[in-house]
TrEMBL record:
Organism: Sphingomonas dokdonensis
Segments forming domain Acyltransferase: 4-355
Pfam short name (any one): Acyl_transf_3
Entry keywords, A to Z: Membrane, Transmembrane, Transmembrane helix
Official protein name in the record: Glucans biosynthesis protein
InterPro entries membership: Acyl_transf_3_dom, Glucan_succinyl_AcylTrfase
Length: 380
């Protein structure tokens, strides 16, 4: 049975991601391209979103993976289908969608070449060119990670089946473990690795990220087949929400007191990472409870919105980067610029989905399942 609440969480998380990325153009932190004015008032609201928004997506993706696996005839077919669904859009993005974004990046770094010259030449070079080299996947890192975690999951299932995951879920559901144990494990792993390996995105370098993302993906997978976890969430979500609120105070205090080039010491940095993960887990548990109660109902727009998420994710980032780079020349004030960037990005996402869903060859390129053949009408 489909869990509509998880669909709404996924839709909401991706909608929030678009707003977040638009806000990054105006926030004081470094990002791909910045508006001429930035606004420190954005620090607190964005600090309250940063720790949990991506981690929630890994949980929801793990849950959806469990449901997809249940519909597959074999584990091998599951791995094959997931590879097609994730790697084909990745290749399309790297071939078609990312070059304009990467061109903006190298232009900002001083490259005098036009888009066509860059796209046909230096974009494909493995030699670093104005700070960039091929291959690079920019915001599509999430898709790369999701594919890698799915393959790890498939290998684990082939070696031992899903029984051990379900047994671990049942054990986690006992007592108050679902509140404190994930925080202890995730924060411990993060702190143990953060001063040893760099905190940078990279499939073969981001070990501190994998130490958090992969367990949450596996938790989502377990959630798809373990009613005991849902019961544990129902019992303890209030305590998790209180932990999230207390941790949010630490996260915002650190962000406000260490701005610009100011760097906290090792002890404060470790406390900040622990608080971020405690906040993330508390928010995730609370949102899962919300999804299972308030949001677990269908709506006529749900199916279309859920299907539109992947195409929107693929296209939103390059569109936003190009527009944010070009828009200040129009002389827009910051408020009008924010409205324009948000509206234009959402419109591009909607156009990508609404046009692409009706073109059979384009559907797999933007992350949609192949169109089902129309039923053959029988003559009377």
């Amino acid at each position: 049975m489909r869990h509509y609440g998880l669909d709404w969480l996924r839709i909401g998380a991706f909608a929030l991601l678009i707003v977040y990325h638009v806000a990054m153009v105006f926030a004081p932190w470094p990002w791909v391209v910045k508006w001429p004015q930035t606004f420190p008032a954005l620090i607190v609201p964005m600090a309250l979103l940063t720790p949990w928004r991506i981690l929630l997506l890994f949980v929801v993706s793990g849950f959806a993976t469990r449901r997809l696996l249940a519909r597959m005839p074999s584990l091998g077919e599951f791995a094959h289908q997931r590879s097609l669904r994730l790697l084909v859009p990745l290749a399309f993005a790297m071939l078609v969608l990312l070059p304009p974004e990467l061109w903006v990046r190298v232009r900002l770094a001083g490259d005098p070449d036009g888009l066509a010259a860059y796209w046909l030449g230096d974009y494909w070079s493995p030699i670093v060119h104005y700070g960039r080299s091929f291959p690079t996947w920019e915001h599509m890192w999430f898709v790369v990670y999701l594919w890698a975690y799915t393959m790890v999951l498939a290998a684990l299932l082939k070696a031992g089946g899903a029984g051990w995951i379900d047994r671990a879920a049942a054990w986690l559901s006992v007592g108050h473990r679902i509140v404190w144990l994930p925080i202890l494990v995730l924060a411990g792993a993060k702190i143990a690795l953060m001063f040893v390996v760099p905190e940078t995105q990279g499939l073969f370098t981001d070990w501190s990220g994998h130490a958090v993302n992969l367990p949450l993906f596996l938790f989502g997978f377990a959630l798809g087949g373990a009613p005991a976890l849902w019961r544990g969430i129902a019992r303890h979500w209030r305590g998790a929400a209180m932990i999230a609120a207390a941790s949010a105070l630490v996260v915002t205090w650190v962000e406000l007191h260490y701005q610009g080039a100011a760097v906290p010491g090792h002890a404060m940095m470790a406390a900040d990472r622990a608080a971020r993960l405690a906040m993330a887990w508390g928010v995730i548990v609370s949102l899962l409870r919300l999804a299972d109660t308030v949001l677990n109902r269908d709506h006529r727009l749900r199916a279309s919105l859920a299907e539109a998420v992947f195409p929107a994710y693929i296209v939103h980032h390059p569109v936003l980067v190009v527009l944010a780079w070009a828009a200040p020349a129009a002389g827009l004030r910051a408020g009008a610029g924010f409205v324009f960037l948000l509206s234009a990005t959402v419109a591009a996402c909607a156009a990508c989905y609404l046009i692409g869903r009706d073109i059979a060859w384009l559907r797999p390129l933007i992350g949609l399942a192949p169109a089902r053949p129309a039923p053959v009408r029988q003559l009377a």
